[in-house]
């Protein structure tokens, strides 16, 4: 059974946390998508950013971001895939309730086939951090590369592998509604080490956890290169300058649970 089959409903609730909007989506839109697409067309409107583009959203989960790609960013066609049947069931139920024309499929990205017509944009929010080994990461990134048209860009967000040791086992994170636990050796993690994430939902005092896997920044960069990506850029999380509680978020992003990747073929 896929890890997310057990906590699909909890995960959907956690998506309502303000950090998802004020930090995660802000970074994705303003520090990842806009800089790339404004280079092509400086006057492009936000709601038309993906106009005319076929987009593949890997590990789409319940369709939280998959829907935004179409509804808020104007993508012409969107396909979402996820290994978890429970997640895809929720995504399809949302599509049925409010149709946007998005197609959802259950699939393991590691064994995704290559389409006849490749995608113009591929996104993956929290997929790559489930690769347990260099080889699994390579299969995911190669499948992504095989689905992406030449010259086009892959936007990924992964759990933060670039933070120092203070970002692990730090009780301070409890106030940010998450904890990241790992067994460090001499202050370091090695490729394949488990990292347990727990999200706390303060509204109903519940929490849920899942296991991700550490692979070093160097391993990521090497794997992307081997899979045929010509450029690779890390994008640290930033918060929306308009958030009310600036001090809280300035502190939060120093321990950011996630980081972005922009890679072009
Ligand atoms: C943290 S959730 C993110 C969901 C969604 N992208 C979002 O940000 O709301 C991670 C998702 O990755 C999916 N996943 C993990 N390994 C996968 C794989 N090998 N192929 C496809 N999906 C996978 C899980 O089932 C889960 O839905």
UniProtKB/TrEMBL annotation:
The protein's matches in CDD domains, at most eight in alphabetical order, are given as: AdoMet_MTases
Q: Which UniProt keywords apply?
A: Methyltransferase, Transferase
Question: GO annotations under biological process?
Answer: methylation
- Domain (Methyltransferase): residue spans on this chain: 55-149
Gene3D superfamilies reported for this sequence: Vaccinia Virus protein VP39
UniProt-listed InterPro entries: Methyltransf_25, SAM-dependent_MTases_sf
Q: Tell me, what is one Gene Ontology molecular-function annotation carried by this entry?
A: methyltransferase activity
Name the domain of life.
Eukaryota
Concerning PANTHER family, the annotation shows: TRANS-ACONITATE 2-METHYLTRANSFERASE, TRANS-ACONITATE 2-METHYLTRANSFERASE-RELATED
Name of the protein this chain belongs to: Methyltransferase domain-containing protein
Q: Which organism is it from?
A: Adineta ricciae (Rotifer)
């Amino acid at each position: 059974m896929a890890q997310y089959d057990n906590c699909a409903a909890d995960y959907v609730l956690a998506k309502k946390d303000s950090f998802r909007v004020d930090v995660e989506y802000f970074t994705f839109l303003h520090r990842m998508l806009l800089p790339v697409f404004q280079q092509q067309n400086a006057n492009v409107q936000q709601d038309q950013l993906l106009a005319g583009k076929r987009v593949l959203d890997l590990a789409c989960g319940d369709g939280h971001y998959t829907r935004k790609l179409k509804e808020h960013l104007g993508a012409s066609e969107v396909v979402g895939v996820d290994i978890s049947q429970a997640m895809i069931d929720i995504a399809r139920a949302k599509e049925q309730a409010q149709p946007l024309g998005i197609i959802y499929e259950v699939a393991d990205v590691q064994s995704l086939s290559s389409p006849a017509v490749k995608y113009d944009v591929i996104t993956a929010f929290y997929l790559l951090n489930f690769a347990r080994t260099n080889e699994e990461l390579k299969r995911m990134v190669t499948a992504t590369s095989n689905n992406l048209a030449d010259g086009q860009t892959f936007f990924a967000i992964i759990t933060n592998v670039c933070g120092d040791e203070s970002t692990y086992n730090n009780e301070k994170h409890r106030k940010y509604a998450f904890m990241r636990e790992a067994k460090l050796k001499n202050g370091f993690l090695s490729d394949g080490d488990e990292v347990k994430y727990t999200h706390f939902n303060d509204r109903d005092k519940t929490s849920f956890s899942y296991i991700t896997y550490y692979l070093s920044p160097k391993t990521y960069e090497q794997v992307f290169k081997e899979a045929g990506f010509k450029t690779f850029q890390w994008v640290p999380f930033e918060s929306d300058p308009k958030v009310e509680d600036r001090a809280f978020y300035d502190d939060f992003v120093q321990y950011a649970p996630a980081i972005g990747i922009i890679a072009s073929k």
